[in-house]
């Protein structure tokens, strides 16, 4: 399971990060204006890329999730706590994002990030999932 999560997060990271810096490099070399779109990876849209579109997973987590998920308030599964995430992480990013976005039992919809987009919630869920692979 840990191995799978590690691989999954590596794949996720490479899709999100590499195309961006690659595109910036191409723009620089061609001397193009920043807002002129250059070749995109297949399936890449502005909304899928990291950076300028919305906040990072860590920023959203600190602002809207940490209050409960760092201390384990009201039974919230704690950041980087493998035991508490067992059985949850296997639901997959998509379902966990839907539950965080729509609310799930004592987990309020969007946590404390009322103005969060679904993408921002997804990033913060990914941030929590990443925390499970970093800590031994
Ligand atoms: C007010 C406290 C609170 C805040 C704020 C909060 N959560 Fe939660 N969260 C909970 C609780 C409690 C649960 C456990 C719900 C259950 O399993 O009954 C939970 C569970 C979850 C789960 C697991 C859901 C599942 O299907 O097992 C995810 C994912 C999650 N929260 C993401 C987030 C994200 C992302 C944020 C911030 C944007 C956030 N939470 C903010 C209390 C909170």
How would you describe what is shown here?
The protein is mainly α and 136 residues long. The chain has a domain at 54-134: Cytochrome c-like domain (Cytochrome Bc1 Complex, Chain D, domain 2). The protein is built from five helices and no strands. The protein has helices spanning 2-30, 57-69, 82-85, 92-102, 118-134. Helix 1 (2-30) packs across helix 5, helix 2 (57-69) crosses helix 5 (118-134) and helix 4 (92-102) packs across helix 5. The longest helix is centred in the N-terminal third of the chain and has 29 residues, at 2-30. The chain is globular and about 55 Å long. The two termini are 13 Å apart. Heme C binds next to helix 2, helix 4 and helix 5.
Beta strand %: under 5%
Shape call: globular
* First and last CA, distance: 13 Å
Architecture (CATH level 2) name of the domain at 54-134: Orthogonal Bundle
Q: Give me the count of strands.
A: 0
Task: Write the CATH homologous superfamily of the domain at 54-134.
Answer: Cytochrome c-like domain
Q: What's the rounded overall pLDDT mean?
A: 80
Oligomer: single chain
Quickly list its features.
136 residues; mainly alpha; Cytochrome Bc1 Complex, Chain D, domain 2; binds heme C
Short summary:
The protein has 136 residues and is mainly alpha-helical. The chain has helices at residues 2-30, 57-69, 82-85, 92-102, 118-134. It has a domain at 54-134: Orthogonal Bundle (Cytochrome Bc1 Complex, Chain D, domain 2), CATH 1.10.760.
Task: Lay out the secondary structure.
Elements: H1 2-30, H2 57-69, H3 82-85, H4 92-102, H5 118-134
């Amino acid at each position: 399971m840990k191995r799978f999560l590690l691989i999954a997060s590596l794949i996720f990271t490479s899709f999100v990060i590499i195309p961006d810096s690659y595109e910036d490099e191409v723009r620089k070399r061609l001397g193009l204006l920043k807002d002129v779109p250059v070749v995109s990876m297949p399936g890449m849209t502005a909304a899928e890329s990291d950076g300028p579109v919305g906040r990072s997973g860590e920023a959203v987590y600190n602002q809207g999730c940490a209050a409960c998920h760092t201390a384990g308030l009201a039974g919230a599964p704690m950041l980087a706590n493998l035991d508490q995430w067992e059985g949850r992480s296997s639901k997959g990013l998509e379902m966990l994002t839907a539950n965080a976005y729509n609310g799930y039992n004592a987990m309020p919809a969007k946590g404390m990030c009322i103005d969060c987009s679904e993408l921002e919630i997804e990033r913060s869920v990914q941030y929590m999932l990443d925390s499970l692979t970093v800590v031994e």
